[in-house]
Specification:
This protein is an alpha+beta fold. It folds into two domains: 170 residues, Porin (Beta Barrel), CATH 2.40.160; 127 residues, no CATH class. Strands 3-4-5-6-7-8-9-10 form an eight-stranded antiparallel beta barrel. Strands 1-2 form a two-stranded antiparallel sheet. β9 and β10 form a beta hairpin. α4 crosses α5. The protein is elongated and about 100 Å long.
Length: 315
């Protein structure tokens, strides 16, 4: 394939990229003058992502033509989202810099279409006598979550063009680079331990209230986070057919059973039954608030994330 065939592709890509950038710049300036409820409108692409340009610099090194020639590349890159509705998941990439292959050195200009970590395009080297225009395939991504070799804004980049293979680092210059995802693939939870059960007088235990408490907790969990299977749905249907076993009934049973168990546990320490019930109600509210604020809310914040260790006993 004649490399000159890629020149129209490179030229069209460069013109579209420049036109895209110019239109986005003009649109941004126009919208800065437009206020809705005294707030300026922000330019967004059809996918809802901010129409932001990302700048980066990179250096690549490798070999060409069967390792007979060394290859080196230093470039400045601009990455911008495509604001065309059918292609809004793609990005344009433009590079400009210096390229060295063997004893030849030339300025280098490239244009790419980018999707996530994969890019395909072409690069033009005006001072090379041959292969001035070459197709390029590139893969670029962080080696770990949000960082590469300990650098928060660095990504590892590999490029291939006919007869040349290079690899190196791409450093993002934007302030928010490397801050859009967590550092780990899982959330580290605090490690807890089960407290030893003290020896107590069984006369202070209301076993019926504790049994009802356990029953209500299990069924509240089944109602609010159901396992959608035939067996689980059939079990829930069978359960709610019995009067007094709806979610609001189980919730009421939970609060009543907790207060009843605490009232019995207070024993003869508070002779007056009314005062004992009032004290049990205050303790129950503290218990419920502690469970809600220290266990349920922290775990719900991590919905969809892997947690290690994954157990309610960690708190």
């Amino acid at each position: 394939m004649n490399p000159r065939n890629f020149f129209p592709v490179l030229l069209c890509g460069a013109l579209i990229f420049l036109g895209e950038s110019f239109l986005g710049y003009a649109d941004d300036n126009l919208q800065k003058k437009t206020l809705v409820q005294e707030q300026p409108l922000k330019s967004t692409v059809s996918s809802g992502q901010p129409a932001t340009a990302f700048w980066s610099i990179g250096a690549l090194g490798g070999a060409g033509r069967g390792s007979n020639e060394s290859a080196f590349q230093l470039y400045l890159k601009l990455n911008k989202n495509v604001a065309l509705k059918p292609m809004s998941i793609l990005n344009w990439e433009g590079t400009a810099g210096m390229e060295k292959l063997g004893d030849r050195v030339s300025l280098s200009v490239g244009g790419f279409i980018n999707l996530l970590w994969f890019s395909v395009g072409a690069r033009y080297r005006p001072k090379f006598e041959e292969r001035r225009i070459v197709p390029v395939i590139a893969i670029e991504n962080a080696l770990s979550r949000g960082r590469t070799f300990g650098l928060h804004r660095a990504e590892f980049r590999v490029e291939w063009s006919p007869g040349v293979f290079t690899a190196g680092l791409n450093l993002n210059l934007n302030e928010q680079a490397g801050q859009h995802r967590p550092r780990r693939a899982h959330a580290t939870m605090p490690k807890g331990r089960i407290s030893p059960i003290p020896a107590i007088d069984t006369s202070f235990l209301d076993t019926n209230a504790l049994s009802d408490l356990k029953h209500s907790v299990l069924w509240i969990d089944k109602f609010v986070t159901p396992a959608v299977t035939k067996e689980s749905l059939a079990e829930i249907k069978e359960h709610i057919r019995v009067y007094g076993h709806l979610l609001q009934d189980e919730d009421r049973l939970y609060h009543d059973s907790l207060e009843k168990a605490l009232t019995t546990a207070l024993g003869e320490g508070i002779p007056d039954l009314e005062k004992r019930s009032e004290e049990a109600r205050k303790i129950a509210q503290t218990v419920e608030r502690t469970i809600f604020e220290d266990i349920i809310i922290p775990l719900n914040r991590l919905l969809g994330q892997r947690k290690r260790p994954m157990s309610y006993l960690i708190i």
